[in-house]
Design goal:
GO molecular function, one term: alpha-1,6-mannosyltransferase activity
Family: Belongs to the glycosyltransferase 32 family.
CATH topology of the largest domain: Spore Coat Polysaccharide Biosynthesis Protein SpsA, Chain A
Number of strands: 10
CATH class of the largest domain: Alpha Beta
Pfam families: Gly_transf_sug
Organism: Bombardia bombarda
Strand content: 5-15%
Keywords: Membrane, Transferase, Transmembrane, Transmembrane helix
Bound molecules: 2-acetamido-2-deoxy-beta-D-glucopyranose
Order of helices and strands: HHHEHEHHHEEEEEHHHEEHEHHHHH
Distance between the termini: 135 Å
Number of domains: 3
Structural class: alpha/beta
Radius of gyration: 40 Å
Number of helices: 16
Mean pLDDT: 80
Length: about 500
């Protein structure tokens, strides 16, 4: 057997070589050679397998660790993802007309952008996919999102979660696009130098110390903004909201799902104030900023500016036509979107402060005189006796009712006037139409008769008479006239 193996295929050369070795090797070694070969092969095989296994195990540990830690490396991309995001109760195929029309403004103006709506039915799956153990492994975020029941908190949180996970543009369902996305970043800038695009919404810093208006007096709007994916500021915002609501729940001694929030808590906890403060804090933290970043940097801007890679657009861009903050109107060149506010039902669920006699200071819409009067009235009210206060409350209530009644009557009168005008216009149009018809008919008849060879002598008289006649005609006479024509 050994001989057969050592002289394969009877090759004379190989046969000679093996014969030489055979002569030098001891007979015992020669007999055990195949065994040695097998052992060496086995050793090598196990050694390699071990190496292979170690390598995969290390990968299995190292790879996810890089993407599951809290401090995920910042992904700086050159371009913003070309994706428009909205969130709503239902998908676009089930949109009411008013939402559909507004939503279409985004897709028709931007055929090169993708469009997606997250709904009440699929939002949790999106959050689980991106933030679950297979994604960013932030199961605390998934659990939090699942526990929260306040719709407005969920809506705020979801836009931040989307922008962190994927980026793009987020717009509320009642925001209409006025210009294509290409206009959102002015030509003089390079997308490479920008991570986020926001617009000023309220710029009324004179009221920054007002007890009610103060927290909302300076803000970027968070119902339209753009992000590149995985910006640390978005994650900070998400974590801040979680910490805040958990604390509120703790103070109220209830679980997350049962937290009761008023208007101001929402504004400052998850809404515009939270958003603005997080962005400004992030800008201020950035290494390349020498001066302290405060609202002053964004007050009364003549044009957009980039601060710490955030492009801040003027108030006209996203919030034109507010009647305050020097916001101009929607016809302006700089106006990019129009907020219709028809989806903002949440203030009714989370009431604002409403003085029993003087109502909401917000209804002043930041007019100095009005706010000052409100403040003065409220301060004087506090000094009155309870009886006096009740008297004023009743008085103001009556005033409001009278005002409402007057407004209602004015509205009705205006509607009636408009209807009358409309009726008169229609009547006049109809009369003019009939007159024209009559004139054309007469002209046709005249032509016919002229062709029959009647003398052209009377033609001029007839024309004038015929042209004037129909205007003076009344319904009954018209019929007579038609009969006459027929009998002619
Ligand atoms: C996810 O994070 C938890 C800690 O929060 C950790 O124990 C777990 O190993 C992580 N999972 C993966 C797949 O990395």
């Amino acid at each position: 057997m050994l001989n057969k193996l050592t002289s394969p295929m009877g090759s004379p050369h190989l046969g000679a070589t093996s014969a030489q070795y055979r002569n030098r090797m001891p007979a015992q070694f020669r007999r055990l050679l195949p065994l040695y070969v097998v052992v060496v092969v086995f050793v090598l095989f196990f050694f390699n397998l071990n190496l292979f296994r170690t390598a995969t195990r290390e990968n299995a540990v190292v790879q996810p660790a890089a993407t599951t830690n809290n401090d995920i490396p910042k992904v700086v991309r050159d371009q913003f993802p070309k994706k428009i995001w909205q969130t709503w109760k239902v998908d676009p195929f089930a949109f009411e007309k008013k939402n559909l029309d507004v939503a279409k403004s985004w897709t028709t103006k931007n055929p090169d952008w993708r469009y997606e709506v997250l709904t009440d039915g699929n939002d949790i799956h999106y959050v689980e996919f991106h933030y679950g153990a297979d994604g960013f492994n932030r199961t605390d975020i998934v659990d939090f999102y699942r526990s929260v029941k306040a719709a407005i908190v969920k809506a705020d949180l979801l836009r931040y979660l989307i922008m962190y996970a994927e980026g793009g543009l987020y717009a509320d369902i009642d925001v209409e696009s006025l210009k294509p996305m290409a206009k959102f970043i002015p030509e003089r800038y390079n997308q490479r130098d920008i991570d986020m695009v926001v617009g000023v919404e309220i710029d009324e810093p004179d009221w920054k110390d007002h007890p009610i208006l103060g927290p909302k007096s300076r803000s970027f709007c968070q119902w339209t903004f753009m992000c590149k994916p995985q910006l640390p500021v978005m994650m900070r915002l998400i974590e801040q909201i979680m910490a805040w609501l958990t604390e509120v729940a703790h103070q109220q001694g209830v679980e997350l799902a049962k937290v009761d929030l008023d208007f101001d808590q929402i504004i400052s906890g998850t809404g515009p104030s939270a958003f603005t403060n997080a962005i400004i804090a992030e800008m201020d933290n950035a290494a390349d900023v020498k001066k302290k970043i405060e609202w002053d940097t964004f007050h009364d801007m003549d044009e957009s500016k980039i601060v710490s890679r955030v492009l801040v657009l003027t108030v006209e861009a996203f919030a034109a036509g507010q009647g305050h903050s020097n916001s101009g109107n929607h016809d302006a060149r700089a106006a990019l979107v129009k907020h219709h506010y028809h989806a903002s039902g949440w203030p009714t669920k989370h009431p604002r402060f409403k003085h029993p006699a003087y109502g909401e200071v917000e209804s002043c819409n930041w007019k100095d005189e009005c706010v000052n009067k409100w403040d003065k009235d409220v301060a004087e009210f506090e000094k009155l006796s309870p009886e006096e206060q009740q008297r004023i409350i009743a008085e103001k209530k009556k005033e409001r009712e009278e005002l409402e009644e007057k407004k209602k009557q004015e509205k009705e009168a205006a509607a009636k006037k408009k209807q009358n005008e409309e009726d008169a216009r229609k009547k006049k149009e109809e009369e003019e139409r009939l007159a024209k018809e009559m004139k054309e008919k007469e002209a046709a008849n005249r032509e016919k008769e002229a062709n029959k060879g009647k003398g052209p002598v009377n033609e001029d008289d007839k024309t004038e008479e015929g042209a004037e006649k129909p205007k003076e005609l009344k319904e009954g006479e018209k019929v007579e006239e038609k009969k006459k024509e027929k009998t002619k």
